[in-house]
Amino acid sequence: MADTIYALSSGAPPAGIGVIRISGPRAGEALSRMAGGLPPARSPRLRIVRNGEGEALDQALVMWFEGPNTATGDDLAEIHCHGGRAVVAALLAALSSIDGLREAEPGEFTRRAFSNGRIDLAEAEGLADLLSAETELQRRGALLAAGGNLSRQIEGWRDRVLGLAASIEAVIDFADEDDVSLPASFSRELDELIGEIRATSQRPATERLRDGIRVVLAGPPNAGKSSLFNALLSDDAAIVTSEAGTTRDVLERPVSIGGVPLVLVDTAGMRDSGAGAIEEMGIERARKEVANGHIVLWLGAPDELPFGAIQISAKSDLGGGQSEGLEVSAVTGFGLSELTDMLVEKAREILPPVDQIAFNRRQREWAQTAAQSLEAVDTHSDLLIAAENLRAARRALDRLVGRDSTEEMLDALFGRFCIGK
Ligand SMILES: Nc1nc2c(ncn2[C@@H]2O[C@H](COP(=O)(O)OP(=O)(O)OP(=O)(O)O)[C@@H](O)[C@H]2O)c(=O)[nH]1
């Protein structure tokens, strides 16, 4: 019999309310003991909640959901108590003293939902992204996956693969009879399916949305990189001084601008001579950041503009700067809103499209495997091989939504969740 687990599912106390979840075969018994009997299923009731000694701990809203149609697939109870530290601690202590109950591991409620078939892996991954979403775009992207849109799309593709396989099997099974052949639409349906899977796979991976677009500020020492970095962040995260070579290492800060997740990266000033050993290491890292950045802002001379970088003319308030590039001043704020508008626009171009499903890297690999298997289907040669390729495509789509996923993969995914989720 599975353990019965419990945890505080709402945020850290103190808070207005605290939601404690209990999931597993003894959830009903535990709630009944503490709340003086079970409330009717799915109907909240206000009850005095007591510990094993009968001492009143709080007056709370209690709810009872009988499995398997619950969030976890188990029997599930919820206690919505006052969110004070001592109240929550007393309720958790009372639960810990009940036999057969133990505190939940991070992500364990969601893992139960997955193993009980309430959600698939794509939905669980979406949920993990939704919980860590900090910007509007991240929220919208993750909600599509968590809400099952991605899974429904995969299910649709899987059904179409099964349909194609059925046509092939029919021809194989009735090979002796002349009048059984593949439907005329077979090749068209196959090509359409491959096209859809390929198109979705080509969208930027959702990790890019999760991790943010790296905006790298680069240029020679004293160009004004750290000042611009601070102006964009509107805080004093970077050290700003007039001494050349102050920023010796790479400093990065995630920031949400216009709902778009960006990671601003300040780098050491690049110069060819006169740099000490430590500064040299910073310059090396700066070069790497320039190479890896999604967007690179160049605050140096136009004739040294790195490939793909955007020319910025910094310290525009001083005048006499180079005339090329977007003029900005960290001191007066001139040009900053144009700069952020441009960053948001460029970032949106390289992020997964809003309101369309997109894959993470793991999902994309399986989608590409499925597409490859479908592309190998050749109805003009041995149909047994075509049938095997269709089976391989179906298996790849199954893997994508987590049918037969490995324990390590699940540990890694559910470890990303917090306790109580
Ligand atoms: N007038 C004016 N001065 C600026 C502006 N931006 C930066 N400065 C000054 O220029 C000097 C260098 O600025 P930083 O932001 O430290 O330059 P950096 O490119 O990060 O320099 P390193 O860390 O050496 O690579 C400082 O004295 C800043 O106050 C600006 O927009 N206008």
TrEMBL record:
This is tRNA modification GTPase MnmE. Its main location: cytoplasm. Binds 1 potassium ion per subunit. Signal peptide: none annotated. Mg(2+) binds at S226, T247. The gene is mnmE. Residues 214-299 form the G domain. Belongs to the TRAFAC class TrmE-Era-EngA-EngB-Septin-like GTPase superfamily. TrmE GTPase family. The keyword Phosphoprotein does not apply. It is an enzyme of class 3 (hydrolase). Residues 121-418 form the MnmE helical domain. It is found in: Cytoplasm. Homodimer. Heterotetramer of two MnmE and two MnmG subunits. GO terms for molecular function: hydrolase activity. Its EC number is 3.6.-.-. GTP binds at residues 222-227, 241-247, 266-269. Its cofactor is K(+). Keywords: Cytoplasm, GTP-binding, Hydrolase, Magnesium, Metal-binding, Nucleotide-binding, Potassium, tRNA processing. The keyword Cytoplasm applies. Residues 4-118 form the GTP-binding protein TrmE N-terminal domain. (6S)-5-formyl-5,6,7,8-tetrahydrofolate binds at R21, E78, R118, K421. Exhibits a very high intrinsic GTPase hydrolysis rate. Involved in the addition of a carboxymethylaminomethyl (cmnm) group at the wobble position (U34) of certain tRNAs, forming tRNA-cmnm(5)s(2)U34. It holds the Pfam family MnmE_helical.
